[in-house]
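User: Good morning. I'm curious how manganese (II) ion would be positioned relative to this chain. Could you predict the structure with it bound?
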Amino acid sequence: MSSYTPAPPSNFGGLSEEHSQYENSRAVIFPVPLERTTTYEHGTRNGPAAILAASGNMELYDEELRIETYRKIGIHTLPPIDTMNGTLENVLAELREAQRELLDDGKFPVALGGEHSLTPPLVTATARKFKNLSVLQIDAHADLRDEYQGNPASHASAMRRVVEVCPAVQVGIRSLSVEEAKAIPHLRTKIYWAKDIVRAPLNNWIAKVVKDLSPNVYLTIDLDGFDPSLVPATGTPEPGGLDWHQVISLVRAVARHKKIVGMDVVELLPQPGDHASDFLAAKLIYKCLGYIFCKR
Ligand SMILES: [Mn+2]
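Assistant: Good morning! Here's the predicted structure, ligand included:
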């Protein structure tokens, strides 16, 4: 063969070693291919790999911030954590410990899911490190069931576990049970329903979300918070969701006024032939890192 192109490094962004070594990187991509409690369509364990693959084809210049974010911060990618061995409780405990180590090293962890059950242990570790933490969730689902199919660690209970640790603000919600609806007034959470925001001007609600958050923020983005016309590749798609502009405007505002200290992007369920969802997830993460570290 006369021309041979080596495969790009399998790290986030396809970065050279100089910009992706652990020691020099402020952001650490943490692949968590967790899939132990999914209830509808399966395959979210392939989410992290699809996001990493898409990220290698992304332009690394941010035309809005006018920088190459990776050059300013460094982005390291960890190998995927083993999520299949041991009980779910063991895996969640390992996640908590891994998050603690990353935070103790002064890193900004970005977990790639995988199912939403990964969020509570990450939030628990983050709340121990940062006082005054609240969680901003972007999602179609309230995820406030006390347990689901007998399992309190189910993806459908992720935010119920989170609000036991710290307060939450939930944005884009449009799917929940009657039990969850009845529980909401008694829980430490504020809901921004999709029905009230998807057609509203951004300045009607984004400043309110920012105000409802505490000084330190953990960001959890379930990709089904987006409208399925933008992100069809999730296990439980719901019509009537947020668009790209709404989500990144929200993250931009939160990053400007609060300290985002960790994040996850969950529930991608890669579909053959749909690269748009994978690509959106990769670009969303890069965009968030730009807003968080390179605000002007
Ligand atoms: Mn969801």
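Residues 25-293 form a domain with the Arginase; Chain A fold (CATH 3.40.800.10). The chain has one domain: 25-293.
Let me know if you'd like a different ligand tried.
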